Protein: D-3-phosphoglycerate dehydrogenase
Amino acid sequence: MSKPKVLISDKMDPNAARIFEERGCEVDVITGETPEELKARIGDYQGLAIRSSTTVTPEILDAATNLKVIGRAGIGVDNVDIPYASGKGVVVMNTPFGNSITTAEHAIALIMALARQIPAANEQTQAGEWPKSAFMGVEVTGKVLGLIGAGNIGSIVASRALGLRMKVIAYDPFLTAERAVELGVEKVELDALLERADFISLHTPLTEETRNILSRENLAKTKPGVRIVNCARGGLIDEEALKESLESGHVAGAALDVFAKEPAKDSPLFGTKNFICTPHLGASTTEAQVNVALQVAEQMSDYLVNGGVTNALNMPSLSAEEAPKLAPYMGLAEKLGSLVGQLAHGNLTKISIERSGAAAELNGKPITGAVLSGFMRRYSDTVNMVNAPYLAKERGLDVREIRHDREGVYHTLIRVTVDTEQGQRSVAGTLFGNEAPRLVDIFGIGIEADLKGHMLYIVNEDAPGFIGRIGTLLGENGINIGNFNLGRHKEGGDAVLLLSVDQPIDADVVKQACGLEGVKVVTPLSF
Ligand SMILES: NC(=O)C1=CN([C@@H]2O[C@H](COP(=O)(O)OP(=O)(O)OC[C@H]3O[C@@H](n4cnc5c(N)ncnc54)[C@H](O)[C@@H]3O)[C@@H](O)[C@H]2O)C=CC1
Ligand SMILES: O=C(O)CCC(=O)C(=O)O
Structure:
């Protein structure tokens, strides 16, 4: 089997390339290309490793015909169109912890730089001015630090600020009272934070709720003399309003590592009094860059080589240890989903996935993803584990997951049931020897079959001579039967025949089979 190919398209610590190679991937490092150049190249790769310079747009994703995974060596993924990637079946991963300490330290550095006006003092001193009386700073001890966002980075900033003897208050709707106590911070509403904070530091992602969270109106609510730090994302602050607040002196200082438009080469804030900035350096330490490079390469190669999923933003996690154990179940689940998708007719509104026995003990999300990826193939042939749940949601399909602790006849069983206009249709399968997938129930009829390759599903009235007649018909059409599986409710009732055949069955053969005496349903299948 050929090795998966990965493109590293942004500057990244060389450890990333080393790990990709050690873990069985081929890797190219080509940075600084234009979107057109990347678009022309991306079709060759299964993996794309990026930082913040590469923007993964729908156009790039459309050209990425072999892409399976995008890995962001960092936290923010606002440079990737995740909904579009999901629709294309591409997993998007990030490294949520690798650069948090480094970024928190940068926020603290900017707080100190603002408090003591270090950049301006440095510049004037080096210009030979010795401006000792021009710079009067403030102590941070005893001052109130208001954190907007107290997740990974915000909580590290809190711990460092507490060490500096600041009083830390935090506005974060998702921060629990227990976690606030654990962090030693006071949880407050946004207005209270704006009113009380001497320093404000932003640590949220950029979302519809957080965009412009420091709007003109909210800046006006801040305490006079407040100092503001943003090491999260541009777009959280109204930059025009910030400039005016700095000029009026209401805001005593502002330090931005991030800008609404990057690279920021001509911001209106440049040159404003008491304004300092860095060019998105929050994550730029040797330690953080080694961390995120190692982590992204490990995660991406796990996925490409073993199917393990860690820190994906559009898919449930699946550890590299779990992946081999789950692999046969996912194979079974996909086949059952595909079978029910090929056999059930009409408008299907609900699908239930039940796991019993050993299957009930496993991580259910990947099994559900596999059932849906088989099932949704009835609507799209570009469906996979990543985009199937999104496509199902788009179609309004109600997906139910049920686990039964008890073991039935089989030590492990997956049952997939869909609601059709004619009632419920259900199929079930097990694993023989914990690895070989076998269908054991089709629409309430017990049968035992391996679902693979080309197959023919027939329902007929159970009567002598039928097997001979269908065998003859297929033989006359040059179709070789590989396997024969039979099941029936009762003698003389409906019988089910599942044939494995070596050639695809065309519409003409289906028509001839439908014409045989006693035949009720003929459906060609493929797995
Ligand atoms: N400057 C740089 O180089 C870097 C910037 N970042 C950025 O820092 C930001 C924070 O990263 P993490 O702490 O790792 O993320 P996180 O996901 O751990 O924390 C974000 C916090 O924001 C909170 N939040 C969400 N919506 C909110 C709202 N409307 N109001 C207040 N709080 C809200 C969440 O509850 C969460 O606790 C991200 O935008 C990330 O991209 C991260 C690393 C480096
Ligand atoms: O890769 C970088 O330098 C930017 C880091 C960042 O902004 C993030 O991880 O969200």
Q: What stands out?
A: Residues 207 and 236 are 9 Å apart (CA to CA).
